[in-house]
Design goal:
CATH superfamily: Hydantoin permease
Number of helices: 22
Bound molecules: phenylalanine
Structural class: mainly alpha
CATH topology: Hydantoin permease
Radius of gyration: 22 Å
Strand order of the largest sheet: 1-2
Shape: globular
Helix content: over 70%
CATH architecture: Orthogonal Bundle
Order of helices and strands: HHHHHHHHHHHHHHHHHHEEHHHH
């Protein structure tokens, strides 16, 4: 282990950084709408079971691999497999995936930043107009916004693990919680708020179908930032005294709690905006919910609280989403940066510059694929749909390769690194772990049903996206 590798300064710093990665756009809007549409309390329960029974062992394995080797995913897979070239390739997938996901996540983050800037400058009314979204995503402000977001990320990552990533999480995560709670407190005072809460929470078992179950598991997996090499990389910055079991559990609890509480903000707001709404009509995509529906909802609030206060609430909301997106973006860009530092002996600044040049190029091309440049907008077509560059990156890396990476982690731990080694690593800083029920559960599940379940989801996603066929449909 290299002595000069940077470390998080404390367990709390690590937990906040990992939770900062996990809490993202998916938690704030994706989860609430999915839950409301797909069985309410029944979905919630199922989601929580998936988080703790399936995702938590994978999360612990990723952190343990990172800490054991003190390396990025390529170095880590290599170190634990005698530099086997196949496993190093699996590690490479664990570096390319976050790089490409960072590309499309950057595009979403720069849109959010523009929305924030527009609301703060008093133009909520414009944001709520029908043309706003397509005008904004095709405007030159994109590049200005990209420069601002890029500089922030560069500044955070350039300051290193402790003074950059950890410090940013220590500021943004508590701020995020406070903003979330304030918004929930306000939303609950609105007329008809209870109807939203009821819709959100009352269990409806009839809605639970195989496709909802598979969707819930994918959502849980993505929400915890698994399969992106992030937790391997963050795990490489923790000390042997850190208890991985409790840290991972706290990250999972925080992520689930934020998703749950976000529902208490979003659903009552939707119902108070339109008491007759049927949530099954709500769009599936978080994107149209944040960028098209919510601005209208905030503007409607002016009738009761006035334009200024409605704009303030919208500003708080977009700042909240921006913080959530920024901490996720930082975590995901750190993975290729760590790779270049470890494997190509680059300094942090050089590694960052390389990633920024290439990532920036891809991000610009993706941002242009919403109409500004024709060939990028209709790049290709598959599964019966025309696809832009942004769609291709999203489908390939976020939807397809992510579960594959999760599967590879399970197989690697079970059949190459071996589970007694995992167990030993998880016992560092946690002496009693080895004999616990959880240890037995992790040991058993990672080599049996977890990879099988992830494999089924993977096959179904491939069939659905590329061949237009849903096995669970
Ligand atoms: N967990 C994030 C979310 O829910 C997903 C993510 C993490 C995306 C890290 C990018 C980087 O939105």
């Amino acid at each position: 282990m290299s002595d000069n590798r940077e470390h998080f300064s404390s367990r709390l710093g690590f937990i906040l950084a990992a939770a900062g990665s996990a809490v993202g756009i998916g938690n704030l809007v994706g989860f609430p709408v999915n839950a409301a549409k797909n069985g309410g309390g029944a979905f919630l329960l199922m989601y929580a079971i998936f988080i703790f029974m399936i995702c938590l062992p994978v999360m612990m394995a990723e952190m343990a691999i990172g800490r054991k080797t003190a390396k990025n995913p390529v170095g880590a897979y290599g170190a634990l497999s005698d530099n086997n070239s196949m496993w190093r390739k699996a590690g490479l997938l664990g570096v390319i995936t976050p790089f490409m996901i960072a590309v499309f996540y950057t595009v979403l983050t720069i849109w959010i930043f523009i929305y924030l800037a527009v609301v703060v400058s008093g133009n909520l009314e414009y944001l709520a107009s029908p043309a706003a979204f397509s005008e904004i995503i095709n405007s030159p402000y994109l590049f200005l916004s990209m420069a601002v977001v890029g500089s922030l990320v560069y500044f955070i990552l350039g300051s290193g693990v402790k003074d950059g990533i950890e410090r940013a999480a220590k500021i943004m995560m508590p701020a995020l919680f406070i903003m979330l709670i304030l918004l929930v407190a306000f939303v609950l005072t609105l007329d008809n708020a209870m109807a939203g809460i009821k819709f959100y929470l009352i269990p409806d078992l009839d809605k639970i179908s195989p496709s909802v179950i598979s969707g819930a598991l994918s959502q849980a997996f993505f929400s915890l930032s698994l399969g992106m090499g992030i937790l391997v990389t963050y795990g490489s910055y923790i000390s042997k005294q850190t208890n991985i079991e409790t840290s991972a559990t706290l990250v999972a609890i925080t992520d689930t709690a934020v998703a749950f509480i976000a529902g208490l903000m979003v659903m009552p707001a939707i119902f108070s905006f339109n008491p007759d709404i049927n949530p099954s009509e709500l769009s599936d995509s978080s994107v149209s919910l944040i960028f098209v529906f919510l601005p209208k909802l905030f503007l409607a609030l002016q009738a009761t609280v006035g334009y200024f206060f409605a704009s303030t609430l919208a500003s708080v909301f977009f700042l909240l989403v921006f913080f959530a997106a920024l901490t996720s973006l930082v975590s995901i860009i750190e993975v290729p940066v760590a790779y270049l530092m470890d494997e190509k002996s680059k300094t942090r600044k050089k590694a960052l510059s390389t990633i920024f040049i290439w990532g920036g190029l891809f991000a610009v091309l993706s941002a242009l694929s919403f109409g500004m440049v024709d060939w990028l907008t209709s790049l290709t077509s598959y599964g019966g749909k025309s696809k832009s560059l942004f769609d291709v990156i999203y489908d390939m890396f976020y939807d397809t390769i992510l579960p594959l990476n999760g599967l590879l982690i399970c197989l690697f731990v079970s059949f190459r690194w071996k589970k007694h080694n995992l167990n030993q690593e998880l016992s560092e800083g946690n002496e009693t772990f080895g004999k616990s029920v959880l240890a037995k559960y992790v040991d058993f599940s990672l080599g049996t049903f977890i990879p099988v379940i992830i494999f089924v989801i993977f096959i179904n996603t491939v069939a659905k996206i590329y061949f237009g066929y849903d096995m669970f449909g």
